Amino acid sequence: MGRLDGKVAIITGAARGQGEAEARLFASEGAQVVLGDVLDDMGGQVAASIGPSARYVHLDVSQEADWAAAVGVAAGMGSLQVLVNNAAILRPAAIEGTTLEDYMAVINVNQVGTFLGMKAVLEPMKMAGGGSIVNISSIDGQQSKNGLISYTASKFAIRGMTKTAAIEWGRFDIRVNSIHPGGVNTPMGNPRNDPRAEKEPYVYQAIPRVGEPIEIAYAALFLASDEASYVTGAELNVDGGWRAGTITPGLPGTDHVVDYGYDSD
Ligand SMILES: NC(=O)c1ccc[n+]([C@@H]2O[C@H](COP(=O)([O-])OP(=O)(O)OC[C@H]3O[C@@H](n4cnc5c(N)ncnc54)[C@H](O)[C@@H]3O)[C@@H](O)[C@H]2O)c1
Q1: Who is most buried in 18, 130, 181, 236, counting CB within 10 A?
Q2: C-alpha distances out from residue 2 to 6, 27, 29, 216, 219, Å
Q3: Per the domain annotation, does 47 fall within a domain?
Q4: Is the overall model pTM greater than 0.90, yes or no?
């Protein structure tokens, strides 16, 4: 028995990274998976390696017509009950160096793409008697970093849009939740595959390392499955504790021992 038996799932940005890990995991749990991306060769190879339960479609998430086509493919495979809005782009730049074109490019993929995806699956999920939408936001949808004005705007928007959809669609048994990954070891999170990027940015994080795509995929699996039947509008952090707060050297309870004289009297 798979945890997603009988369900068809659309996963966007599935040619690599977290989306690929989700597609492989969902298929191994019994789902029929539709992998959407703009990297057609890579996406087609991933789908082929998963086998007959997977299909690749060209899906630019910012294009409404592409969504209609992808939903059509999913409908031909069975009962569309899961959508993972995972596709995103990142264009780091200081605010003064961010052009309107770059800003809108990020908004169009990350934010508009998530909106269009949710809209596109509503009717098929109603017909299926319910479903689960998993929107991939980020810890940057809850706080921010320098250099991420457009990305942060889009990820805060995804977090908010998730709650609107959860409230509107609970009556159709459609659950909508957001996942907030911390740093993840993918082309986005570690573009040069640099071993330093797996440790150094995280030394003051509770779990002091980068996350792996499969660790996000397991969270998405839970939310996609019927095990999460009473979970909607929620934010699931998968971030090694980043959002819990950082380790403070000089206070007790850490191996980062520095004497700043913080003794109690
Ligand atoms: N990697 C991280 O550190 C990190 C941290 C927090 C959140 N996230 C989020 O996790 C999700 C997955 O990112 P990842 O780390 O796997 O990155 P990634 O860059 O490896 O994968 C993103 C995928 O989205 C695809 N994509 C880009 N534009 C698209 C479009 N218009 N239509 C369809 N697909 C498109 C890319 O081709 C790629 O396959 C994203 O939403 C990202 O914002 C990533």
Answers
A1: 18
A2: 9, 9, 4, 19, 16
A3: yes
A4: yes
